[in-house]
Amino acid sequence: MCDDTLISRDAALTTLPRPVAGAAVDPIDLEPVDQVTITTLVDNSYDGLMVDMGPAKRTAMGRTPRVAAPQFAQGETVPGMVAEHGFSALVTTKRGNTTHTLLFDTGVSPNGLADNIGRLGLDAGDIEAVVLSHGHFDHAGGFPGLARLRSGGLPLILHPLVWTRRRAVFPGLPEWELPALSRHSLESEGFEVIERRQPSLLLDGSVLMTGEVDRTTEFETGMRFHEAWFSDGWEPDPLIIDDQALVVHVRGRGLVVLTGCGHAGAVNICRHALRLTRAGRLAAIVGGLHLTGPGFEPIIEPTMAAFAELAPDVVVPAHCTGWRAQHRLAAVLPDAFIPNAVGTSVTLGAA
């Protein structure tokens, strides 16, 4: 299905019907690509001494541009990359002689994303579209810096609930209302907002945004103490329905799934992607898996059991996964596990 009204300036977007949970559905025709590269632009950590590991290539300290620093005899130093509590990744697909690039999330600060794009020597002009995994501020903060790097606007694909006011109400702590996105601000910066709840195909059918994810596991029940403002006031919002993931099908390998926080549940997301595409197997999962803290650590073990069954070739946990879950992933899937850091590029498929 293709709706010509959804052809935007820089990226073709096809909206697909959302399947009914548990029902048989026609597979989404996600075109296989020859290669995908996911480059982490924003994450919680940076390690300039990390070495390359399997399909992951690192950005070492000496490979970033020098900056003025009068306290050193040479008058300059190498700053490395900016790490912050947020997430953003650049996704580049190749099929034959055709290459497409999009941005997935934008990090937390106004300048962190833009600074890292510059330090990695990337060209923001190559970005054809931006997609948001969900509306939380640590994934949507870098738009001002991105706008400064661009001479023109970009299509911005997101769920309509990303504008929702939200807060965290933890026992014994003051209520904390999270910064909420402003549609007017984004549009004034030149972004073309495209709201979609359903699965959507982008960039010549090479990238799938899942839309709302079916919740089918018994243990992935959402984020306790998370609330949203609706018409009658603050209400519990544990499911964070706007959470969605990006999926690429690498020829001969299987699905590559990219998550922001994975609020829908990492296992739910992977199973949902496999069900939507009927691709057969999961090649890789990259991104935040939200298994940190006392509210989520109890589901680490059932998550590990499910991942062992899914048996991905590559697992690159990031952002909100948490150190306990990362240690368990390294133990359960030692051949697949790759620690992440800002500047890491993971490539799967033939050149």
Structural description of this entry:
The protein has a single domain (4-15, 29-349), classed as Ribonuclease Z/Hydroxyacylglutathione hydrolase-like (Metallo-beta-lactamase, Chain A, 4-Layer Sandwich). It has six helices and 21 strands. The chain has helices at residues 112-119, 143-149, 183-188, 266-277, 300-310, 323-332; strands at residues 13-15, 35-42, 56-57, 67-68, 76-77, 88-95, 98-104, 130-131, 155-158, 166-168, 176-177, 192-195, 200-202, 207-209, 226-230, 233-236, 246-250, 254-259, 282-288, 314-318, 345-349. Strand 13 (200-202) and strand 14 (207-209) form a beta hairpin. The two termini are 30 Å apart.
Question: TL;DR of this structure?
Answer:
By secondary structure, this protein is of the alpha+beta class. 15% of the residues lie in helices and 26% in strands.
Provide tags for this entry.
disordered N terminus; 351 residues; alpha+beta; seven-stranded mixed β-sheet; 21 strands; 26% strand; eight-stranded mixed β-sheet; 15% helix; 6 helices; Metallo-beta-lactamase, Chain A
The CATH level-2 architecture is identified as 4-Layer Sandwich
- Rg on CA atoms, Å: 19 Å
Question: What is the straight-line distance between the termini?
Answer: 30 Å
Mean pLDDT: 92
- Largest beta-sheet details: 8 strands, mixed
The number of strands is 21
